[in-house]
C-alpha cells in the first residue's frame, strides 16, 4: 500500500514519534530512580507493545531483563471481548523480580486487570504497569498505572505497534483510524 493510501485511512495524528520518544525518556528516568538496586524485569505484552518495549528499554541506561507474554482479547474487530486467552506464557519464574508490565494501551482495562490477577500469585517482588496510551472514557475497570504516556480520546487508534487486523503497526505516529476502514 502506498503512503497516500495509508494516509487516507487515518484521520488525526494524536501522538507523534517525537512526543513518544520524549515521554519514554522521562518515564525511563523515573523508572531508573524508582528501581535503583532492584532486579527489574520488563514484561512486554505482544504484539502491540513491541515498539514501546524496544524504545523504552533503550532509554534505560541500567541492566534489565525482558520477557514477553502474548494474550488476546480482541479478534480483528475494534471492541474488547473481555475474554482473555494466553497464547504465549512467560519463560521467567517471577520469584525475586520486580515486574514492570509494558503495554501499548489501556482501553477497557479488562486485559490488564486479568493479567495483573494472573501475575499476582506468581511470586514477584512487585508488579507495576507502564502504558503508552490510555482511554479514560473507555474504562470498564480501573487500572493502577504507575507510568503513563498519554491519555487519548475514546477512538480506535493505530500505529507505533497498534494494529487494525495486523496492519498499520509500523506507522511511526499514533493516529485515529478512519471509520470507513472498519465500518
Ligand atoms: P483493553 O480494552 O482490554 O484493551 O484495555 C487491551 C488491548 O486491546 C487492544 N486495543 C487497541 N488496539 N487500537 C488498537 O490497535 C485501539 O484503539 C485499541 N484499544 C485496545 C490493544 O492490544 C490492547 O493491549
Ligand atoms: Mg496489546
TrEMBL record:
Domain of life assignment: Bacteria
Enzyme class per UniProt: transferase
Main location: cytoplasm
E.C. numbers: 2.4.2.8
Swiss-Prot/TrEMBL cofactor(s): Mg(2+)
Gene Ontology MF, one: nucleotide binding
Any Pfam family hit: Pribosyltran
Reactions the enzyme catalyzes: IMP + diphosphate = hypoxanthine + 5-phospho-alpha-D-ribose 1-diphosphate; GMP + diphosphate = guanine + 5-phospho-alpha-D-ribose 1-diphosphate
Cross-referenced SUPFAM superfamilies: PRTase-like
Protein's pathway: Purine metabolism; GMP biosynthesis via salvage pathway; GMP from guanine: step 1/1; Purine metabolism; IMP biosynthesis via salvage pathway; IMP from hypoxanthine: step 1/1
Any one Gene Ontology cellular component term annotated for this protein: cytosol
Biological process terms in GO annotation: GMP salvage; guanine salvage; hypoxanthine metabolic process; IMP salvage; purine ribonucleoside salvage
Record field: transmembrane: none
Keyword set, alphabetical order: Cytoplasm, Glycosyltransferase, Magnesium, Metal-binding, Nucleotide-binding, Purine salvage, Transferase
Recorded coiled-coil stretches: none
UniProt cross-references to Gene3D superfamilies, sorted A to Z: 3.40.50.2020
Protein's cellular compartments: Cytoplasm
Family to which this protein belongs: Belongs to the purine/pyrimidine phosphoribosyltransferase family.
Name the record gives this protein: Hypoxanthine phosphoribosyltransferase
Organism: Microbacterium album
